[in-house]
């Protein structure tokens, strides 16, 4: 965020930022000395975090970094991830505590206690064993947001199988490529799920995917929508027929700390997706500890809701493994925020007394667009902490979230991390950090992060550079599945051995706090000036007419790149055509400076987004440069691109 944008928001900010609420600070899980303790003995700090878990055998060496970039954590230690997430809480007398309040989109609900979850996980583990799944086998999970998704993941972890969850919105081709790459032998799916008020098919996608890949011998199908599906005898089996008849007893085996837990596929610069591999001991240590510290989780009183999908890493780490390891009571919701009405989320917060809510900036901006009156119609007084994840949050959205959802009393933890990092890496701590809207602020205790220049040298405060991680961390990816060379080239080659390049730009402010600027390819170079798309988007959204903005750099023969902005107006704003464009362009000039003035500003009804909520800037660049559109298969609604294309002027507007 620029100094001028800072100034524009200063009238909404208390001097010095937002300090922790005294009551929270007094009882915070992570107190004021936590960063100092971690800095004094980083490895010992993570060993203490690991001791929060139950180990069948202790580790002999906390970290083996003798062959970078291939790390091993808690070497020689053995544990069972599922036992740590479920059994140990039941054994300690907490079997009657609710693990999940599940809410289906049509309005159906289920409540699963820890004891019930343990029984279901054991039955499913026995069912998978009956299907021939053994430790080390890969199991693909392609399910909607239903409890069976969590149960399936834990059942795999219990028997040492490696789960590979594919988001239910992905196409048959995308599913097939992941099944092939992971060499999965079993697929767990459902007839369908509910999305925007209607059944959305899943089993037909699996059937089509399996015509394009070989090796899958069994498909386990949950009956969710009661829609008719094709059936392949000898391969397909109903969940309710196989799982329900299994014993609720299962003897769990302990696995090595470095035993693979899951593969998660993420997009890369090539057509082939990257299978990010996470292992057991280090991953569970970090997601458990970060969940406890970042969200100040009190398991006896909190109701925690990560409003994401288990198909993404946010769901793995902060719907499943982190919360369950900490004996949290969580909310899990199947559907979209506006089904059957735009207050659905706030209705759920009110009904279940949610105390901690964790969601993405793109969702917050959608709520802003819908208006303050929607959340105002519900009692949100149970909330005590808010979180943000997935992309840098612009200060305007931060302040709206703080005021309209948090009642101006809830700290917001703005977390930076990645599929590759496994858990939180840079985040405020709610009991100790004075918050700056838009900044993730400082590395989590025990994490070594730095902002460097092109040569890899640390930058001075006020400068912009590249975010790197300079020491290994417990939840880090271990490799790209089946491709160690790609792992080294992708993440560890830019700044030399042992330095992880995150792919994100960042800025240090005068206090040394970190402001994430998004992916490096989202940093534009205009006449030699590095300008963040996030910075320009924040300036646009700070104008009272703008609800949401997406900015891209388009090739320009004069300046190298020209700034092209796509904006969605707030509900009561009027599109006055070129007059509005001039007003917005002048507003950006005022907020950031003339160099950031957009070459083009287009008012659009919607932006192209993936099903995880991320804006597809690659497609917007195609539009801005009059290129043929690239792959639109991962968009929620590909017709959005036709609407935007139809508005593209023949030549860029200048003034």
UniProtKB/TrEMBL annotation:
User: Any idea which positions bind CoA?
Assistant: 195-198, 314, 527, 589
UniProt keyword annotations, A-Z:
Acetylation, ATP-binding, Ligase, Magnesium, Metal-binding, Nucleotide-binding
- Which residue intervals define the domain Acetyl-coenzyme A synthetase N-terminal in the entry? 33-85
Reaction(s) catalysed by this chain's protein? acetate + ATP + CoA = acetyl-CoA + AMP + diphosphate
Q: How does it get modified post-translation?
A: Acetylated. Deacetylation by the SIR2-homolog deacetylase activates the enzyme.
Q: Tell me which domain of life the UniProt entry assigns to the organism this sequence originates from.
A: Bacteria
Return the annotated region ranges for Disordered: 1-33
List the Gene3D superfamilies hit by this protein, alphabetically.
3.30.300.30, N-terminal domain of ligase-like (3.40.50.12780)
Q: Which residues form the AMP-binding enzyme C-terminal domain?
A: 535-614
The cofactors it requires, by name, are: Mg(2+)
Enumerate the spans annotated as AMP-dependent synthetase/ligase domain.
Answer: 92-473
**What Pfam families does the record tag this protein with?**
ACAS_N, AMP-binding, AMP-binding_C
Give the N6-acetyllysine positions (modified residues).
Answer: 614
Enzyme Commission identifier(s) = 6.2.1.1
Sites binding ATP sit at 390-392, 414-419, 504, 519, 530
CDD domains with a match to the protein in the record: ACS
One BP annotation, GO: acetyl-CoA biosynthetic process from acetate
Q: Which is an annotated GO molecular function term of this record?
A: metal ion binding
Polar residues bias (residue ranges): 1-10
General function of this protein: Catalyzes the conversion of acetate into acetyl-CoA (AcCoA), an essential intermediate at the junction of anabolic and catabolic pathways. AcsA undergoes a two-step reaction. In the first half reaction, AcsA combines acetate with ATP to form acetyl-adenylate (AcAMP) intermediate. In the second half reaction, it can then transfer the acetyl group from AcAMP to the sulfhydryl group of CoA, forming the product AcCoA.
Q: From the Swiss-Prot or TrEMBL record, give the protein name.
A: Acetyl-coenzyme A synthetase
| Originating organism | Modestobacter caceresii
């Amino acid at each position: 965020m620029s100094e001028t944008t800072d100034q524009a928001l200063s009238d909404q900010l208390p001097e010095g930022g937002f300090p922790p609420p005294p009551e929270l600070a007094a009882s915070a899980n992570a107190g004021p000395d936590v960063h100092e303790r971690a800095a004094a003995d980083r490895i010992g700090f993570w060993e203490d975090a690991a001791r929060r878990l139950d180990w069948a055998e202790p580790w002999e060496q906390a970290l083996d970094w003798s062959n970078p970039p291939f790390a091993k954590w808690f070497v020689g230690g053995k544990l069972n991830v599922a036992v740590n997430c479920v059994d140990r809480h039941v054994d300690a007398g907490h079997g009657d505590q609710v693990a999940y309040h599940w809410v289906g989109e049509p309005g159906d609900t289920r409540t699963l206690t820890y004891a019930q979850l343990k029984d279901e996980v054991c039955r499913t583990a026995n069912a998978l064993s009956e299907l021939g799944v053994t430790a080390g086998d890969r199991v693909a999970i392609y399910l909607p947001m239903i409890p069976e998704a969590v149960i399936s993941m834990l059942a795999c972890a219990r028997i040492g199988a490696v789960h590979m969850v594919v988001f239910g919105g992905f196409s048959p081709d995308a599913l097939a490529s992941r099944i092939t790459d992971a060499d999965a032998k079993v697929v767990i799916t459902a007839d369908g799920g509910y999305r925007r008020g209607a059944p959305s098919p899943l089993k037909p996608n699996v059937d089509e995917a399996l015509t394009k890949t070989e090796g899958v011998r069994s498909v386990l199908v949950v009956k969710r929508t009661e829609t008719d599906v094709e059936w392949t005898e000898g391969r397909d089996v109903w969940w309710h027929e196989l799982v329900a008849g299994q014993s609720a007893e299962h003897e769990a085996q302990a696995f090595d700390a470095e035993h693979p837990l899951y593969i998660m596929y993420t997009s890369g610069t090539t057509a082939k997706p990257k299978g990010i591999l996470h292992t057991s001991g280090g991953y569970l240590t970090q997601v458990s500890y970060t969940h406890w510290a970042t969200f100040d989780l009190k398991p006896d009183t909190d109701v925690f809701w990560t409003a994401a999908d288990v198909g993404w890493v946010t769901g793995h780490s902060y719907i499943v493994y982190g919360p369950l390891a900490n004996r949290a009571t969580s909310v899990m919701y199947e559907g979209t925020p506006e089904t059957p009405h735009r207050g659905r989320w706030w209705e759920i917060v009110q009904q279940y007394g949610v105390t901690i809510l964790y969601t993405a900036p793109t969702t917050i901006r959608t709520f802003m667009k819908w208006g303050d009156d929607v959340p105002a119609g519900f009692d949100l007084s149970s909330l005590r902490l808010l979180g943000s994840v997935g992309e840098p949050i612009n200060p305007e959205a931060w302040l709206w979230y703080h005021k309209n959802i948090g009642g101006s009393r809830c700290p917001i933890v703005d977390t930076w991390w990645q599929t590759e990092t496994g858990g939180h890496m840079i985040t405020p701590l709610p009991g100790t950090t004075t918050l700056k809207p838009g900044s993730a602020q400082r590395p989590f205790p025990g994490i070594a992060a730095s902002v460097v220049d092109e040569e890899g040298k640390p930058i001075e405060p006020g400068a912009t550079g590249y975010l790197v991680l300079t020491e290994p961390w417990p939840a880090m990816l271990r490799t790209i599945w089946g491709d160690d060379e790609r792992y080294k080239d992708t993440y560890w080659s830019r700044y030399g051995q042992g330095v992880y390049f995150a792919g994100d730009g960042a800025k240090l402010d005068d206090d040394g706090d970190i402001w994430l600027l998004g992916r490096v390819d989202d940093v534009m170079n205009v006449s030699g000036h590095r300008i963040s798309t996030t910075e320009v988007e924040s300036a646009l959204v700070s104008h009272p007419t703008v609800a949401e903005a997406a900015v891209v750099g388009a090739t320009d023969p004069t300046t190298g790149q020209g700034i092209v902005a796509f904006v969605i107006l707030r509900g009561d704003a009027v599109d006055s055509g070129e007059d509005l464009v001039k007003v917005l362009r002048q507003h950006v000039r005022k907020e950031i400076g003339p160099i950031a003035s957009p070459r083009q500003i287009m008012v659009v009804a919607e932006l192209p987004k993936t099903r995880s909520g991320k804006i597809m800037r690659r497609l917007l660049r195609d539009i801005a440069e009059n290129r043929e559109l690239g792959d639109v298969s991962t968009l929620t609604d590909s017709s959005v691109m036709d609407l935007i294309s139809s508005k593209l002027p023949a030549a860029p507007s200048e003034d």
